[in-house]
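Protein modeling request. Please complete all fields; requests missing the sequence field cannot be processed.
Requester role: graduate student
Desired output: 3D structure, C-alpha cell encoding
Chains: 1
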Amino acid sequence: MSPANLPAAWSGLVDDAAVFPPGDVPLPDAVDAFRSRRDEWYADLVGSFVVTDTRLPEVPQDIPVTVVVTGGAGAVAGVATLAGRLGHRLTGIEIAVRDLDDIAGNVRRINAAVYAARAEGLPEETEIHVELPQVGPTASWLAGADAVAEAEAHLKFRTGGVEAHLFPDAATVAAWIDAALDRETSYKCTAGLHHAVRHRDHETGFEHHGFLNVLLATRRAFDGGTVAEVAEVLDDHYTNDMVALARTSDLAGARRWFTSFGSCSVSDPLDDLLALGLLEAPHA
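Delivered output (284 residues):
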C-alpha cells in the first residue's frame, strides 16, 4: 500500500526513539524498522529518527536524524560538524540544561554555541530543542524559557521515564504549556507518551500522560483556558471524553505549538489512533 497523506493533526507527530529506554531496540533493527515504514500508508506519522551524538556514526545517511547531545553546550559544534561530514540530514538537535543553578545562563551558552555552529554551516532548518529541568516554572525556569524564546529555539518537555519521579503531574505540565504559549514558543515532548489517553501502566504502576491529552490541553491553553483548566484536560482518563473533544477541536492548529513527541514505539500511538477512530487506514 502506498503512503498516504495523513491529516495535519497526525503528520510527523511521532519521532522514532526506539533505541532509547524502555524500548532499547538494537540500532540496526531500529534503522531497518524505520526504513520499512517508508512504504506504509502511515509513513507520514513518523518524523525523524532520534539518536544520541555518540551513536550518530552508526546511523546510515539516508535516515533523517534528530540528535540528542550528551554533553554540554560545547558539544553542539561537534554534532553539527559530524553530521555534515557524514552527510546526514540533521532535522533537529536536542540538548538538556545541565547547570540547574543558572538555567538562563546555561540556555544562553547553548544559544551562543548554536549561533556559532550556524555560522559554520549548521542548516537554518535544523531545529534546536532545549530541555529545561522537570520542575514547576520557578523564576529561574521562566528565565530559561525566556532565553529559549529569545533565540527562537524550541522547548522540550520530559513527560515520563523509567522511574516514577520522571512523570510530572498534570499541574506541572499545564504550567509548562502555559509558559511556552505565553512566549509563542513551540515544544516537543519525550518519554511516557506511548498511548493517546492518560492511563496507569499495569506493570509499573506509573501514571502516564496521553499524547491526545497533551494535544487537547495545548488547544485549550491556546483558546485562553486557565492553567487549572489545562490541567483538567491533562488529567482526564476517560477515553470517550477525549475522543468527543478531539472531534470538535482544531487539533491541526494545536500542532503549531505541540509539534511532536519521541516514542520508543510507533505501533502503540498508531494503534490507539485507529482504535479510537481518529485515524482510518485506507482500503487496499
